[in-house]
């Protein structure tokens, strides 16, 4: 057996390949395949049963176990989260990319593409200012990442996951 190239072991690339393979299957069959693969690796099953289609309570899980509403595109995800300011908008974009296997590090171009697909305005001229505010004032993004790379902080992940429950965000802040 040959060792896969580093490009083919990139989590984003692998997630896209797995998605392409499982795309045409029914939800129950997808769950069976994912659980069988987990079993082959000696891991716990991803889920005990297949989620009900389009169920608000049954969030599907991706390979890394991150919970997201299956099948939501960028626009639907954005509408569901209802961000109220630029920092929240950037956090929602980053979280969507993470949940959909597009990496944990994001660039200005990644954000621009997300906002375009979500049919939202992207303020390219003020991006640096907005990102600095999201890092320094809101602590939604980690500091110390390479120039031009942005990583959602743990708090930012929890915050984005809690949206649109704006009243519950104080609970996430208490955890940090």
Rg from alpha-carbon coordinates: 17 Å
Q: Give the terminus-to-terminus CA distance.
A: 45 Å
Low-confidence stretches: 48-69, 170-176
Note the main sheet.
Answer: 2 strands, antiparallel
Principal-axes geometry comes out as elongated
User: How would you write the strand order of the largest sheet?
Assistant: 1-2
How many domain regions?
Answer: 2
Helix/sheet category: mainly alpha
The CATH class assignment of the largest domain is: Mainly Alpha
Instruction: Report the sheet-strand fraction.
Output: under 5%
- Helices, by number, come to 8
- Quaternary state reads single chain
- Assign the CATH architecture of the largest domain: Orthogonal Bundle
CATH structural fold name of the largest domain: Arc Repressor Mutant, subunit A
What is the mean predicted local confidence, pLDDT? 76
For this entry, give a set of tags.
mainly alpha; 176 residues; disordered C terminus; Arc Repressor Mutant, subunit A; single chain; two-stranded antiparallel ribbon
Description:
About 45% of the residues lie in helices and about 0% in strands. With about 180 residues, it is mainly α. It has two domains: about 10-70, no CATH class; about 75-175, Arc Repressor Mutant, subunit A (Orthogonal Bundle). It has a two-stranded antiparallel sheet. Helix 3 packs across helix 4. The N and C termini lie far apart (about 45 Å).
């Amino acid at each position: 057996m040959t060792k896969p190239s580093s490009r083919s072991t990139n989590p984003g690339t692998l997630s896209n390949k797995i998605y392409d393979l499982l795309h045409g299957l029914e939800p129950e069959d997808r769950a069976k395949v994912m659980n069988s693969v987990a079993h082959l690796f000696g891991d716990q099953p991803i889920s005990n049963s297949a989620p009900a289609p389009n169920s608000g309570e049954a969030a599907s899980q991706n390979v890394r176990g991150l919970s997201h509403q299956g099948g939501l595109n960028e626009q639907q995800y954005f509408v569901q989260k209802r961000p109220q300011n630029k920092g929240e908008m950037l956090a929602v974009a980053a979280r969507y990319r993470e949940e959909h296997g597009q990496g944990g590090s994001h660039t200005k171009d990644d954000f621009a593409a997300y906002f375009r697909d979500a049919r939202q305005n992207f303020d390219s001229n003020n991006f640096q200012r907005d990102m600095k505010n999201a890092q320094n004032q809101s602590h939604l993004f980690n500091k110390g990442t390479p120039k031009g790379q942005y990583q959602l902080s743990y708090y930012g992940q929890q915050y984005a996951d809690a949206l649109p429950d704006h009243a519950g965000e104080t609970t996430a802040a208490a955890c940090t």
